[in-house]
Structure formats: C-alpha cells, structure tokens
Amino acid sequence: MQRKPNLRALCRRLPAGGNLPGHRLRFGSGTEGIERLEASLVGEAFSPHRHDTYAIGMTLRGVQTFRYRGELRHCLPGEWHILHPDETHDGAAGTDEGFGYRIIYIDPFLVQEALGGRPLPFVADPVVGHRDVHPSLLASLADIDEPLGDLERLEVALLVAEMLERHSSAPLRKRAPLALEPLSRVRDLIADDPAVRHTVEEFEDVSGLDRWTIARQFRAAFGTSPTRFRTMRQLDRSRRMLAGGMPLCDAALGAGFADQSHMTRMFKRAYGLTPARWVAALAGVTAHP
C-alpha cells in the first residue's frame, strides 16, 4: 500500500470541477470488486438511491449531508461515511459552497471473502471520525489513479472488513453457515450475462439449493437480492456503454432493459442521477434531465 498520506493536505484538495454548479464525477483506477470515485456537488442534490455495494467515503471539503435510515446526517471534512448495500440515501451540500468527497465502492462478495464466511456486518451509525480509520485505508484514497494490483485488492478488502466489524451496530451472533459455494454459482450465472432473465428453476439446478434457501441466504451473503443484483449488473453494463459514447437507447437495449425509460428509472434509483446527468457529470458539463 502507499505511504500514510497527510490528512490535512488531502482534505485541502478540491475534487475536479471546483465550485462550478452541478455534479462533477471522476473515476479513478479500480479493480475487480472495487471502484474509486472523486466527486463534487454544488447547488444540486443526489436523489434518494441505493447501491448494491458498500460505499465508504471521506468528505474532502464542505459539509456533506444525507438522509439515511430516517435521520439527517452530516459529514465534515476528514470524516468518513459507511453506507450498507441496499440502504436508501440521498446526498446534498450543507452550505452554498457545496462539498467534495472521495469514495470506495466495494462488492459485498469481496468483503465476504475477506470475512471468511462470517455474516456481513451492519454499521447503523454511518459517520466515522478519521481517527477510527486505518491509515492504509486512507492511503487508498490518497491517489485514486494509482493502480490496484492483486495484493492491494486483498489488502483493501481486509481493511474494509475490519472497519465494518469494528463499527458494527450489533455483536456478531452465531448462525448457521452460509452455502457460499452454491450461492456463488447463482451469482456467477447472473453476472455472466445480466441481460438474461434466469428462472428460479435454473438457480436451483446450478446451486443444488431450494428456492427459499437461495432467497434467504443470497442477501445474507452478498447484501442484496438476486433480482437487485441482476439489475445492478445491467446498470454496470449500461454505464460502460454510456461512458464509451453509446446513445441512451442503444445502451438500454444492450444491457437488457425493456427500453430507455426502464433504464432511466433503474439508473436514478441506483445512482441518484439520470443517465444523461451522469454522462454530463463525467464530462464536466451541464445537462437537462
């Protein structure tokens, strides 16, 4: 991992876009199961949305506010936030100056591997002070363009797993072990081609589990339902197409959505922005809904 960064110096850095109105997004270097993003927001808000990943970020400037589990939260420069998969949240600036942040999106499957099969932890209080964050995890956000190799990928996953367990809202309870290998086959079947809508019978055939066990344990293992997991993989595919310049309609059909309107609804629910605004935020321009 990188050397421990200077927290004050990192917090003084402004995300791309400065104080221009709107959203500015810049993806850094990632790897399988990990995305890193630098963002700023001035004068607009993210609509309520939910990811199927853990979203672990740090405010760099301004005041970040978001509603989470029925409460309005505030995250100041240097503070971190931990958002659990499938938990609805929004995002807005607490002042007219807007705010900037960096964030890691990490696949619950990778966290599950780091936990060695233990249940996914849940952190009810999402705001964490910088003193409660391992310096090496801070370093992973110090330069989001630094490539993440296989070893760094494992280190980040272990650091995130340790952070989640340390701040978990409830003591870990013993429960029956999850059928991770069969559940992984269901997950892989969906991820291999998310445009295909598989039947429950296919899930049972590939896993050897009954449908109720699949429904119960898939969420416990991976933080979301099989249906939601498929939708998010469709959105991953559509994002790649849109980032490459593909028109909205073609990206929707290529990802297996019924039409552009269907993709737009799912996109906004997942990211808090319409596809058009998301593309504009990547390009640093203003877009209409």
From TrEMBL:
UniProt entry keywords in alphabetical sequence: DNA-binding, Transcription, Transcription regulation
SUPFAM superfamilies per UniProt: Homeodomain-like, Regulatory protein AraC
UniProt entry tagged with the keyword Protein biosynthesis: no
Residues covered by the HTH araC/xylS-type domain: 184-281
Pfam families in the cross-refs: AraC_binding, HTH_18
Name of the protein described by the UniProt record: AraC family transcriptional regulator
InterPro entries per UniProt: AraC-bd, AraC_XylS_family_regulators, Homeodomain-like_sf, HTH-like, HTH_AraC
PROSITE patterns per UniProt: HTH_ARAC_FAMILY_2
